[in-house]
Amino acid sequence: MTPRSPRQSLRAIFTLGFFTAISLTLLIPFLASQQAKSQPFSPAPNLLAVTNQKRVALVIGNSNYQATIALANPGNDAEDVAKTLGELGFEVIKVIDGNQKQMDTALDRFSAKLSQGTVGVFFYAGHGVQVNGENYLIPINAQLAAEKDVVYETLPVGKVQNAMGKTGTTGIIILDACRDNPFSRRWYRTTNSKGLAPIEAFSSSYIAFATAPGSVAADGEGRNGTFTSYLLKHLKTPNLPIENLFKKVRNEVLKATKGKQQPWDSSSLTDEFFFNPVSTATDTPPTPITQPITTPNPPVTAPKPATPPTNPPVVATANRPPDFLSKLIPYPLDKISLAYSFNNTELIGISSDGQILATNKDKVLEIWDLTTGKKVNTFSYNSKAYYYLSSNEQILVETYPTKVQIWGLQTGKLLHTLTLPKIEITSTTISPDGKTLAIGFRDGNIRNWNLITGTSIRTISGRCGWSTTISYDGKTLVSACENNTIKIWNLETGQLISTLTHHSGVVLSVAISRDGKTLVSSSFDKTIKIWNLSTGKLIGNLNDDSGFFFYSVKISPDMKTVIGTGLSVIRLWDMNSRQPISSPISSPQYQYQYNDLRISDDRKTVVITSFGKIDVWKAL
Question: Is residue 246 part of a domain?
Answer without folding.
Answer: yes
